[in-house]
Design goal:
By secondary structure, the protein is α/β, with parallel strands linked by helices. The chain has 2 domains: 7-45 and 289-392, Aspartate Aminotransferase, domain 1 (Alpha-Beta Complex), CATH 3.90.1150.10; 48-284, Aspartate Aminotransferase, domain 2. The chain is 43% helix and 14% strand. The strands form 3 sheets. A 7-stranded mixed β-sheet has the order 2-8-7-6-5-3-4, with helices on both faces. The protein has a 3-stranded antiparallel β-sheet with strand order 9-12-11. The chain has a two-stranded parallel sheet with strand order 1-10. Strand 3, helix 6 and strand 4 form a beta-alpha-beta unit. Helix 5 packs across helix 10 (254-267). The protein binds pyridoxal-5'-phosphate. Residues 40, 100-102, 126, 172, 176, 204, 206, 235, 237, 243, 248 line the site of pyridoxal-5'-phosphate.
Length: 394
C-alpha cells in the first residue's frame, strides 16, 4: 500500500539533531572521541528531594490515574514560587501546567489563531516558535534579531501592516539560540507595541535561572500591563534538570489561559500526578542548587568563550541560557559546512546557526553541557586541528 501523508508533515524537515546524531555515531564507531556541544540537555542531576518526591509518589497506586486537572498543591506551589522568585502575584485561574514549553508552544496557536492569521516569531529563533503556528496554517512573519542591536527586536523593523494583522508574537529572553538578555526598557516597549496593535505576547521564560554577569532573571509578568497583553511560559526543565519529566507552566492573562486550557482538555488528560508531585518538590524546596548551577554554567561560559578567544576565535561571552552563540571563525561562510568540518577535524559537535532561521547563518550554537576540564580539552583540540588557520587562508 502506498501511504499518503499530509502536506504539513512533508514540510517538516528531519531535525538537524538527528543528522548530527547519525554523524556522531559514525565518529564513535570509528573510535574517535566526541565532544557533544549540540544538545540542550543539561548534564546536571535533579536535586535529591525532587527524586525522593517522585519515588514516593511512584509507590502510591492513586498516582497512576488520569490527573485531568492541576492539583491544588501544584497551583499553590506555583503561586508561591512566582511571588517569591519574581514578585509576581498569580491567581489560581492564571496558572496551568503543560507537558513542557515545547508542547505548549506547539499547541497554543490552536487556541489563538485561524489559518492565514499572522504570527510574529524571532529570526534566528527556537524552531517550535514557528512550527506550532505553521501546524494550524498561520502565516509566519519573522522579526529580525541583529547582533548590532544586541539581538533585541527593533519594533520599527516590523512593517505597520504586518503589525496590524498580527494575532500573536513570540518573544523569549534570555534567548536561545542568540544568548542575549532583555531589560525593563525592552519589555516596556514590547508591551506598548502589543497594546498599540492589539497583539498577544507569548513570553518564553525557559532560561530566567541561567543568566550571567550578576544579572537577575526576570518575569515578563513583573512589568506593568504585561498581564493585559499576554502570558509567560516557565519551564522546570533546565532550572531543575527535569527535562525528561515534561513539565512547565503557562501563566498570566486568564482569558488566554482559559481558552488554552479548554483546547488542551480535549487533547490530553492532565499532567501526570507523579510529575505534579515532583514539580511541587522542586518549586517549594531549597533553591540554592539552582543558583549554584547557574554559577557552574557561567564558569563553563568563561572557559569556552575565553578559551576560544585565546586561540583566535572571536566568540563573545553568552549573557544567558545554557548556550553560546558563536560567529563562524574568519574565512568560513556556511554554518553547516563548518559544523561538519569541525566535527571531522576535532570531534566537536555544535549546531549550525542556519537551523534557527536564515539570520542564524554565519553562526554556530554550542551548549554548555560539558564540565570545564572537558571544555578546555575541546578548545585545545580546535587549536591543534589548525581549522582556524585554514579558514584564514581561504
Ligand atoms: C527557548 C526554549 N523554549 C522551550 C524549550 C523546551 O522546554 P521544555 O522542556 O519545557 O519543553 C527549550 C529547550 O531547549 C528552549 O530552549
Amino acid at each position: 500500500m502506498e501511504f499518503q501523508f499530509s502536506e504539513r508533515a512533508q514540510k517538516i524537515e528531519e531535525g538537524i539533531f538527528s543528522i548530527l546524531d547519525h554523524k556522531k555515531s559514525e565518529l564513535m564507531a570509528a573510535g574517535r572521541k566526541v565532544y557533544n556541544f549540540s544538545v540542550g540537555t543539561p548534564d546536571f542531576q535533579p536535586q535529591p528531594h525532587i527524586m525522593k518526591a517522585m519515588s514516593e509518589a511512584a509507590l502510591d497506586p492513586e498516582n497512576y490515574k488520569y490527573a485531568i486537572t492541576d492539583r491544588e498543591e501544584l497551583l499553590a506551589a506555583m503561586r508561591n514560587f512566582y511571588q517569591n522568585r519574581f514578585g509576581v502575584e498569580l491567581a489560581r485561574d492564571e496558572i496551568m501546567s503543560l507537558y513542557g514549553s515545547q508542547e505548549g508552544m506547539a499547541h497554543i496557536a490552536i487556541a489563538l489563531c485561524d489559518p492565514g492569521d499572522v504570527v510574529l516569531v524571532p529570526n534566528p529563533g527556537y524552531p517550535v516558535f514557528s512550527l506550532g503556528p505553521e501546524l494550524v496554517g498561520a502565516q509566519i512573519e519573522t522579526y529580525p534579531l541583529y547582533a548590532e542591536n544586541q539581538f533585541l527586536p527593533d519594533f520599527s523593523d516590523i512593517p505597520e501592516e504586518t503589525a496590524r494583522k498580527a494575532r500573536f508574537m513570540i518573544v523569549s529572553y534570555p534567548a536561545n539560540p542568540v544568548c542575549s538578555v532583555a531589560d525593563g526598557t525592552f519589555y516596556e516597549k514590547l508591551i506598548a507595541f502589543a497594546r498599540k496593535y492589539e497583539i498577544i505576547v507569548l513570553h518564553d521564560n525557559a532560561y530566567s535561572d541561567i543568566i550571567y554577569g550578576g544579572r537577575e532573571g526576570q518575569s515578563f509578568l513583573s512589568y506593568p500591563g504585561a498581564r493585559e497583553v499576554g502570558i509567560e511560559f516557565y519551564s522546570l526543565s533546565k532550572s531543575y534538570n527535569m527535562t525528561g519529566l515534561r513539565i512547565s507552566f503557562a501563566v498570566g492573562n486568564r482569558e488566554i489561559i482559559r481558552e488554552f486550557r479548554k483546547v488542551r482538555s480535549q487533547i490530553d488528560y492532565g499532567t501526570s500526578l507523579l510529575v505534579q508531585k515532583s514539580a511541587v518538590a522542586a518549586l517549594t524546596g531549597p533553591q540554592e542548587a539552582v543558583r549554584e548551577q547557574c554559577r557552574e554554567y557561567e564558569k563553563r561560559n568563561q572557559a569556552l568563550c575565553g578559551g576560544l578567544r585565546s586561540i583566535g576565535w572571536n566568540v563573545p561571552d553568552s549573557q544567558g541560557t545554557m548556550f553560546v552563540w558563536a560567529p563562524l571563525p574568519d574565512g568560513y561562510k556556511n554554518s553547516e559546512a563548518f559544523t561538519l568540518e569541525l566535527m571531522e577535524k576535532t570531534g566537536m559537535i555544535v549546531t549550525p546557526g542556519s537551523a534557527f532561521g536564515d539570520l542564524g547563518e554565519g553562526y554556530v550554537r554550542m551548549a554548555l553541557v560539558l564540565p570545564v576540564p572537558v571544555i578546555e580539552e575541546a578548545v585545545e583540540k580546535i587549536k591543534e586541528s589548525g581549522i582556524l588557520a585554514a579558514g584564514e587562508k581561504r
